[in-house]
User: Which sequence fits this backbone?
């Protein structure tokens, strides 16, 4: 008889618990509570405790970074990084910048940062090795040529089919040149943005393709007597995202921060402040 009595007691206990749960005041589930607190600063799985480690390349160029000092908060991407940091609960003094070369940022493996911001386009192959936030900027490509050269008044991408084009390795610009311009000659590919600019200066290439925001800056600073012949879209668009290690525990929280900055107009305001208008550049097809 002991076994039936024990079973009956257990059943009565379960029934009582169910009644109390049904009649008691509503409470958030453990899952909901955990989700709500997961992005609290103290809960974030950081590379270095108490510090938000942000990476970018070196040198870092305008209009994304000013004076090659990502930590000064000047330039579009520097300002975006600090805005995201603030949403996550960090003060500027709690943000640490580290150097990560562009073409190694999206390589598989562990990372020495919490997120990387470096005009990194979101692509399928890259997303297999790393995580991306929701886009913080969408950028077309721009073609820089000599202002008095034969390509200055091009009206189509076909005009560049026989041009010697320079582009940086590992960039969406390289993929865009190959897929959209389809040049007769293989483009000259360079390791860094600086090398690409130098090749244009010494007339090794007749045109260089970079993202449009960079094209605006280069033609107004480093590359005198040049113009942006036109803009065009990269295959599938060119959305930039903050890059995190694959499966990072920070991804959802960073994504939430970027989405909030988009919704409240912060990203649009930073875009307007730091990146020139696209309106004056013809779109080429």
Assistant:
């Amino acid at each position: 008889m002991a076994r039936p009595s024990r079973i009956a007691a257990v059943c009565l206990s379960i029934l009582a618990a169910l009644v109390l749960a049904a009649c008691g005041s509503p409470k958030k589930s453990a899952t909901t509570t955990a989700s709500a607190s997961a992005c609290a600063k103290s809960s974030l799985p950081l590379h270095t405790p108490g510090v938000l480690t942000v990476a970018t390349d070196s040198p870092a160029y305008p209009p994304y970074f000013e004076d090659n000092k990502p930590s000064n908060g000047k330039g579009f991407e520097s300002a975006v990084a600090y805005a995201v940091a603030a949403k996550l609960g960090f003060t500027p003094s709690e943000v640490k910048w580290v150097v990560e070369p562009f073409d190694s940022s999206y390589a598989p493996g562990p990372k020495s940062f919490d997120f990387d911001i470096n005009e990194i386009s979101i692509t399928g192959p890259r997303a297999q090795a790393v995580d991306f936030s929701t886009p913080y900027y969408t950028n077309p490509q721009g073609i820089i040529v000599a202002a008095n050269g034969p390509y200055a008044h091009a009206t189509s991408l076909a005009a560049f089919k026989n041009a010697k084009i320079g582009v940086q390795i590992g960039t969406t610009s390289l993929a865009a040149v190959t897929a959209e311009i389809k040049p007769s000659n293989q483009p000259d590919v360079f390791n860094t943005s600086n090398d690409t600019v130098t090749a244009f200066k010494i007339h090794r290439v007749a045109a260089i393709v970079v993202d449009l925001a960079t094209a605006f800056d280069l033609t107004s600073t480093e590359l005198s007597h040049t113009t942006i012949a036109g803009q065009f879209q990269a295959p599938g668009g060119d959305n930039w995202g903050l890059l995190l290690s694959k499966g990072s525990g920070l991804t959802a929280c960073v994504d939430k921060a970027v989405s909030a900055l988009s919704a409240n107009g912060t990203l649009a305001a930073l875009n307007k402040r730091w990146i020139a208008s696209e309106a004056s550049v013809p779109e080429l097809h």
About this structure: Confidence is low (pLDDT under 50) at residues 1-34. The chain has two domains: 45-138+238-274, 141-232. The first helix runs from residue 2 to 23.
